[in-house]
Amino acid sequence: NDIILADDSGAIVIPQEKAEEVLKIATDIQEKEILIEQMIKKGMTLREAREKVSYHHLQTLNAPSDGETK
User: Fold this and answer.
1) What distances in angstroms separate CA 65 from CA 22, 32, 46, 60, one per listed residue?
2) pTM, whole model, 2 decimals?
3) Predicted local distance difference test score (pLDDT) of residue 48
4) Which residues contact 22 (CB under 8 A, 6 or more apart)?
5) How many Å apart are CA 27 and CA 19, to the nearest integer?
6) Which is nearest to 35 in space by CA: 48, 23, 19?
7) What sign has the CA pseudo-torsion 8, 54, 23, 70?
8) Residues 28-51: pLDDT tens digits?
9) 57 falls in which pLDDT band (50, 70, 90)?
10) pLDDT on residue 59
11) Pairing of strands 10-14, 3-7
12) Are 2 and 14 in contact (CB under 8 A)?
């Protein structure tokens, strides 16, 4: 009962029991990316905007360490 998502850049398999958690994290990332785009349009650099919304933290939230799977 895993969820499989694919597009022309690749595919991922999400265990059904992790689906809500993955959706929450993906939604948070999408919201921050919208904010970053708005900040850039107002003259901020990409680096400044990413730092301001702690974007790197979102991308690594609950990420497994090298060679480790969750």
Assistant:
1) 17, 23, 26, 10
2) 0.69
3) 96
4) 14
5) 12
6) 48
7) positive
8) 999 999 999 999 999 999 999 999
9) confident
10) 67
11) antiparallel
12) yes
Would you give the distance in Å from CA 52 to the centre of its chain? 16
Q: Alpha helices of the chain — where are they, by DSSP H?
A: 19-41, 46-52, 55-60
Q: Return the closest-CA partner of residue 54 out of 21, 26, 30, 32.
A: 32
**Total number of residues shown for the chain:** 70
Give the pLDDT of residue 14: 96
Q: Which residue do the tokens 């970053």 mark? A: 36
- Looking at residue 42, its pLDDT comes to 98
- Token duo for residue 29: 């990332």
